[in-house]
Amino acid sequence: MEDNKGQILLYQTPDGETRIEVYIELTALVVFAVQIAVSGWWLQRFRFGPLEWIWRMLTYGSYFKIRLEDRQ
Predict the structure, then answer these.
(1) Is residue 41 included in any domain, yes or no?
(2) pLDDT digits (tens, 9 = 90+) for 12-39
(3) Which among 4, 11, 40, 8 has a CA at the least distance from the CA of 26?
């Protein structure tokens, strides 16, 4: 039985050399950080996320305002 622990981080090339790949993890961290930044910006301006807004309108059969009112 093969041991698949660390399969994402380590892989073996056809010539038998073992390489460490961290691009997957770095890409995931960058995407996660961008999502956090964009979601903070979005929720300062809108009540719901875009898909949640569409889902609510389809569920309740009525139009909901998505933008927040100016609180100045």
Answers:
(1) yes
(2) 667 777 666 677 778 888 999 999 999 9
(3) 8
